[in-house]
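INTERNAL AUDIT FORM
Audit reference: QA-55
Scope: verify that the stored structure record matches its stored sequence.
Auditor: D.O.
Record contents follow.
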Amino acid sequence: MNLKAIAFNEYGSADKLSLMDLPVPEIGAHQVLVQSKATSINPIDWKLREGYLKQMFDWQFPIVVGWDIAGIITEVGADVTEWHVGDEVFARPDTTRQGTYAEFVAVDDHLLAHKPENVSFAEAAAVPLAGLTAWQGLFEHGELQQGQRVLIQAGAGGVGTYAIQLAKHAGAEVWTTASQKNDALLHDLGADVVVDYHDAAAMAQISNMDLVLDTIGGQSAVDAIGYLKTGGKQISITGTVPEGVRLAQAEGKHYQSIWLRPDGQQLAHLATLMAEGALRSVIAEQLPFSLASLVEAHHLSETGHTNGKIVITFD
């Protein structure tokens, strides 16, 4: 039995993506097969397609990218006990060459979470990678506490929109950087202070932060060391910036680069927050599953200027 998937047989631009017929994955004893209802786009998708991560992931072609899934379980492995055919779920699957731009996806049972009834498949599919990244950056590595002051860089992005809500829910004072046009959206999500990154004078007022969540990297990550109080932390999701490490050490501050760890229990906690209305997805674009849609979605993501997430839905 075959499925439709968007994949590529060589690294390069978005025109390397192709609609393919591939075998439906055979699931292991502790896996389930999920019929896809929605997936979403993350920067890792096009960075891997471009070949930037091929040393980290030395995979055979064809490669199906995508690591967000929301859908319905159609088959369970022999040793799966907590999940059943018909369950509506979402997940950040393990990072393999059989990603979620496909009609069916095999997912390890410990990485699944139940989709809340009051949340659509599209809204759920937007969450896993970006939401878990925000959670782990803020709390697992950043150890953000109630009453602390946190700066979330690029608050209108996929990770940023979730991070603002999570930090506010935890009782932090939430600052974020964004274009002025996103001011109302970010205040609505829970930001206390929105700083226009085009305004040098406004940026110069950022100080005394307990935590900076860096989603930009490069010079922005270096500059952000100056925003921290002594003993403060910067958590970066964009890769290590050596100058940031050096500067942090020189000033008695902490700099750490993190890589997302898929975690079904943490995702279940995010599902609870969504069910309670404390966390929502900001969806910039919702497109139907097709080659044209995936090419367009990659181009949009590469601009770095979409608000929230780009979601792909399956009929």
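Auditor finding: record pair retrieved intact. The first strand starts at residue 2 and ends at 8.
Action required: none
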